[in-house]
Write a structure and sequence with these properties.
Strand order of the largest sheet: 1-2-3-4-9-10-11-14
Order of helices and strands: EHEHHEHEHHEEEEEHEHEEHHHHEHEHH
Number of strands: 14
Distance between the termini: 13 Å
Largest sheet: 8 strands, parallel, barrel
Strand content: 5-15%
Length: 432
Amino acid sequence: MPKPFHLGWFANFTAGEWNHPFTADTSPWDGKFYVEMAQAMERACFDYIMLEDTLMVSEAWRGTPEATLRHALQAPKHDPLPPAAMIGAATTHLGVVATMSTMAYPPFLLARLASTIDSICGGRFGWNIVTSGEDAAAQNFGMDELPPREQRYDMADEYVELVTRLFDSWEPGAVLRDRASGTYADSSKVHPIHFEGKYFKCRGPLNTVRSPQGKPVYVQAGGSPRGREFAARTADSIIATANGTAGMKWYRDDVRARAVKAGRDPDSIKVLFLVYPVVGETTAEAEAKYQRRVTAPDFVESALASIGTVTDIDFSQFDLDAELPRLTTNGEQGSLDKFAQWGSGKTLRQLASERFDGGLRLVGTPDEVAEMMGEAMAEIGGDGFLISTPFQRSSRRTVMEITEGLVPALQRRGLTRTRYTHSLLRDTLREF
């Protein structure tokens, strides 16, 4: 039997696939669609749903918010924490991961929120750790610009150390609920942390009970060498951009080697690669769906504006039919490198058209796509895939095609689980 792999879904609390012929003309802002989406994922035995976030209305494209708002690219966007709590309360086994930036949240506040939601979820919450990569976001929090990327990671190292100590400020068994003595919590098992670092200072302890997992699952996306170092030392699960099976294997091997150097068991880290499958009842139908997507009138502009959002680069300044010059950014360098495919000779228009191929073109019937995913994972060595859609636009139809079409095809091949065997998200991730 093949080794099974893990499945997650990369989404965000946005307008969804609002202009598709098979999308209901209703508002998504009450969060109910995302609860239903998560329930469908739970029936398909996904590991977790990941709610991405950014903290600004991007003006990267031509210096205005026009393209961002016209195409609903990462804006409007609502906070991921309330739907995370809603999903946790409406599911039993599915993990719920929400993005919170080390730039935006004071460490005590973040730890308190994460601990609270892990309790609501019964031990199934995860924190997607981001440092934010956009100056426009920094300006919403009283700064003129972000610190340099390397410094942001130094700050994140200290931030994670602090919040981890806050999570541990309540020992296991601190809550007694002893009616005979009238004691709810044992004060000898609740400790201030008196943390004082270069960037952060906090007395502690948390004023929440210890969360069911002790600390939530840590999720991180590290593309640059410094980012991979941070992820290897910190994360339980890593979000990685796909770059062909050889590139994906290299990335996973690199992270695992860094984890060993950091004294960690590499098998405790699950690397999930972002993919954008397109499935149809026939191969031709799936291919036609893919071609309609990438040839849509606004696709190229939307693709370039969306990558500009996370890289802080205005791609409108470059010739669509010429090769992109080599660029660096203080934003998400890993995302830029993946998008640009340096040295490939591809034009900017080609790069935009391939923006959501994920380095692994998954187009076909459910059985064909399942076979491709199994072959790729066998070559990579693990650990799984993070399903997504272009611009994170989802609809009930898209969710059904994956959870009731593709996933059963994977399950028939023994590639993904058919039932849950653990109650905590960290244990679910480490099941295989």
